[in-house]
C-alpha cells in the first residue's frame, strides 16, 4: 500500500514567501513536492472562501505565507490574512475537521530555508492527520 501523500496549497505573497520559495529553489533546497503555490500580490488579498475552496478542491492542508509582521507592503494585509486564517480554523472546528490543517506564516524574501522548513512541517503534520473528506465525495448523494 502506498503512503499517503498530502496535497498542500500555499497562498504566498509575491514580495516575501513567493520570493523565498524561489530562493529555496535557487539554493537547491529539498522540500516536499506536495505543495502547490498560489502567488498573491499580498496575503491581504486572500479571503476565507479561497481557503475553504482549496479544501473543497482536494487540499489536505492549506497555508498562507505573508511578509514579516509590520513589513507588509500594503500595511495590514498580513494581519488581515491572519484573522481570516483564524476564522477558517473556527469554521473547520465546526465541521469537525482539525483546525491545524490551515496555518499562517510570516517570512521575508531572504528566508528560503525557512520556506522549505514550513513546507516540510506542514507536510509532516498533515500526513499524521491523514486525508480530509472535504471535496473527496464528488458523486451526488442519492435520496
Ligand atoms: Fe506581503 Fe502584504 S505585501 S503580506
Summed up:
The chain has 143 residues and is α/β, with parallel strands linked by helices. It has helices spanning 17-26, 48-56, 77-94, 112-129, and strands at residues 8-13, 35-40, 61-66, 102-106. Bound molecules: FE2/S2 (inorganic) cluster.
Low-confidence stretches: none
Largest sheet: 4 strands, parallel
Total strands: 4
Rg computed from alpha carbons, rounded to a whole number of angstroms: 15 Å
CATH architecture: 3-Layer(aba) Sandwich
Termini separation comes to 34 Å
Tell me the CATH topology: Rossmann fold
State the shape. Answer: globular
Top-tier CATH class: Alpha Beta
Q: What small molecules are bound in this structure?
A: FE2/S2 (inorganic) cluster
Structural class: alpha/beta
The helix tally amounts to: 4
What strand line-up does the widest sheet have? 2-1-3-4
The secondary-structure element order is EHEHEHEH
Q: How much β-strand is present in the residues? A: 15-25%
Layout of strands and helices, then pairs:
Blueprint: E1 8-13, H1 17-26, E2 35-40, H2 48-56, E3 61-66, H3 77-94, E4 102-106, H4 112-129
Parallel strand pairs: 1-2, 1-3, 3-4
Helix pairs in contact: 1-4
FE2/S2 (inorganic) cluster (FES) binds next to helix 3.
Question: Can you walk me through this structure?
Answer:
The chain is of the alpha/beta class and 143 residues long. The protein has a single domain (8-129), classed as Rossmann fold (3-Layer(aba) Sandwich). 38% of the residues lie in helices and 16% in strands. The chain has 4 helices and 4 strands, in the order βαβαβαβα. A 4-stranded parallel β-sheet has the order 2-1-3-4, sandwiched between helices. Helix 3 links the parallel strand 3 (61-66) and strand 4. Helix 1 packs across helix 4 (112-129). The longest helix is centred in the middle third of the chain and has 18 residues, at 77-94. The protein binds FE2/S2 (inorganic) cluster. The site of FE2/S2 (inorganic) cluster (FES) has 13 residues, from helix 3.
Amino acid at each position: 500500500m502506498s503512503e499517503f501523500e498530502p496535497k498542500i496549497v500555499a497562498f504566498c505573497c509575491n514580495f516575501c514567501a513567493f520570493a523565498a520559495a524561489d530562493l529555496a529553489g535557487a539554493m537547491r533546497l529539498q522540500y516536499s513536492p506536495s505543495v502547490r503555490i498560489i502567488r498573491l500580490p499580498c496575503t491581504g488579498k486572500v479571503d476565507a472562501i479561497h481557503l475553504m475552496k482549496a479544501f473543497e478542491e482536494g487540499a489536505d492542508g492549506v497555508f498562507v505565507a505573508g511578509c514579516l509582521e509590520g513589513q507588509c507592503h500594503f500595511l495590514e494585509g498580513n494581519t488581515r490574512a491572519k484573522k481570516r486564517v483564524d476564522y477558517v480554523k473556527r469554521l473547520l472546528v465546526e465541521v469537525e475537521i482539525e483546525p491545524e490543517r490551515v496555518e499562517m506564516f510570516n517570512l521575508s524574501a531572504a528566508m528560503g530555508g525557512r520556506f522549505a522548513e514550513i513546507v516540510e512541517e506542514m507536510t509532516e503534520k498533515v500526513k499524521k492527520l491523514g486525508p480530509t473528506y472535504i471535496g473527496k465525495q464528488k458523486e451526488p448523494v442519492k435520496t
